[in-house]
From TrEMBL:
Coiled coil: none annotated. GO terms for molecular function: 5'-methylthioadenosine deaminase activity; S-adenosylhomocysteine deaminase activity. Its EC number is 3.5.4.28, 3.5.4.31. Residues 71-417 form the Amidohydrolase-related domain. PANTHER family: AMIDOHYDROLASE-RELATED DOMAIN-CONTAINING PROTEIN, AMINOHYDROLASE SSNA-RELATED. It holds the Pfam family Amidohydro_1. It comes from the Bacteria. This is 5-methylthioadenosine/S-adenosylhomocysteine deaminase. Keywords: Hydrolase.
Length: 462
């Protein structure tokens, strides 16, 4: 038998793009690194990845030389509320902020136009820091889906369900019907996946959680919910069932469909239960730290076999929307929690921000690593600035040194959404102007709700 000729594995048609010359972190199961390396792309998917010397076997319609860069998977932001960006920085450091200030503010100000404009603005912010996929939970979620589609990024769009009239529903639990419409309207989209998003165990009762679990099964979509986040929630369900998670286990909502967000108040029995039920966890270390709550036992969950991804939370919760900050804080806080320096090494943290998030969102067959056959969701990071030099360990550099301004190019499905630092889907000035318009419209309501004097919001250029 003749040995296989590598040229025989080339596609009949030329790749559309070959990105070459940078160090490639694949984040695949073998932790392959090609330094220097290349990635070849055809029809939205990666057709080859390897050492630079092999790139000549994959001539493409366009070749992009990115020597002196780091090529790695785009970040997967496993939980956020991107349309809260007009409110960023408002009503900070106040106790009971959610019920006293945020819910009333949203009821007064959140409308479909704000949701779309703010979504476009925040998608741009995320793209400029290397995020290619995000999981969102908010009102008028069809507008978030529409914005993600227009921007060309990947998203899990979750319609919020609460037990009171919401900005987009005039009756309690009206979000369930809206979520059904969302699921039907976006079914089969190549980049946008609909989701049911009951807000929390304290805002959705047991019977409706059971209804949502059944509906998710019928529609074959995920469920995303804040779980074990609040101290009052913890106290309430610990008194009746031993813990929040053990209460939820009585409702039927705990299943592999559930993306449990936060998961702060857990004991060892809860961790074992999470693993047994096959739920996934979206860990938001920065917003949790900012709120002064316990640190999620993410390392222990991961050790128990639970899939863990990382999220920014919303612009009003964690403020920053760049995943570099989140990825860097994750191992640091876990080391503090466990009093151990050796846990959550850098490559594990980067995995959580890429493949971990892909697993959590049910997308790991398509994204999260740079492998043949996967979607070409890629970021190219420049390595010529003070903050990243020198490089001794690629994973340590990626986790502890990179900042948002280092991101040079971002591709989703092989198409540039950021190229040479410039957005490809919208005018940056227009995005900022629209965001500031909604911030001005909200300012009077924010001042009325604000419990203490505050400085005016930034209105540059107006």
């Amino acid at each position: 038998m003749q040995p296989e000729n590598p040229l025989d594995r080339r596609p009949v048609l030329l790749p559309d793009l070959c990105i070459r010359g940078g160090a490639v972190l694949t984040l695949d199961a073998k932790w392959r690194i090609f330094d220097p390396g290349f990635v070849a792309i055809k029809d939205s998917r990666i057709v080859a990845v390897g050492h630079l010397a092999e790139a000549e076997q994959w001539p493409a319609r366009e070749t992009l030389d990115v020597s002196g860069t780091l090529i790695m998977p785009g970040y997967v932001n496993a939980h956020t509320h991107i349309s809260m960006s007009p409110f960023r920085g408002a009503m900070e450091d106040a106790p009971d902020r959610l019920t006293r200030f945020i819910f009333p503010l949203e009821n007064a100000m959140v409308r479909s136009k704000l949701v779309y404009d703010a979504a476009m603005f925040t998608i741009a912010e995320m793209v400029r820091s290397g995020t290619t996929c995000f999981a969102d939970m908010y009102y008028f979620e069809e507008e978030v889906a529409r914005a993600a589609d227009a921007a060309g990024v990947r998203a899990l769009a979750g319609e919020t369900v609460v037990d009171f009239p919401a900005p987009d529903a005039d009756r309690p639990y009206g979000g369930i019907e809206r979520a059904e419409h969302l699921a039907k309207d976006w079914k089969g989209h190549p980049r946008i996946r609909p989701c049911l998003a009951p807000h929390a165990p304290y805002t959705v009762d047991a019977s409706h959680l059971a209804e949502i679990a059944a509906l998710a099964e019928k529609l074959d979509i995920p469920v995303m919910m804040h779980v074990a986040e609040m101290d009052s929630e913890h106290a309430r369900f610990s008194a009746t069932h031993g813990s929040v998670l053990r209460y939820l286990d009585t409702t039927g909502i705990l299943s592999p469909r559930l993306i449990a967000v936060h998961m702060l108040y857990l004991d060892e029995e809860d961790i074992a239960l999470a693993a047994k039920r096959g739920i996934s966890v979206a860990h938001c270390p920065v917003s949790n730290a900012k709120s002064g709550r316990p640190i999620c036992p993410a390392w222990r969950l991961s050790e128990a076999g639970v899939s863990v991804g990382l999220g920014t939370d919303g612009p009003l919760s964690g403020n920053t929307m760049d995943m570099q900050t989140i990825t860097s804080m994750y191992p640091k806080l876990q080391k503090v929690r466990e009093h151990r320096r050796d846990i959550v090494p850098a490559r594990t943290a980067l995995y959580a921000a890429t493949m971990g998030g892909a697993h959590v969102l049910g997308l790991s067959a398509d994204i999260g690593s740079l492998e043949e056959g996967k979607r070409a969701d890629i970021q190219v990071v420049a390595l010529d600035d003070f903050n990243v030099l020198p490089v001794h360990d690629w994973y340590a550099t990626a986790v502890y040194a990179l900042q948002a301004h280092n991101v040079r190019d971002v591709l989703v499905d092989g198409r540039f959404v950021l190229r040479d630092g410039k957005l490809q889907f919208a005018d940056e000035r227009e995005l900022k102007e629209r965001l500031l318009y909604h911030a001005r419209q909200s300012a009077a309501t924010i001042r009325a709700l604000q419990p203490a004097p505050m400085h005016p919001h930034h209105t540059a250029g107006t």
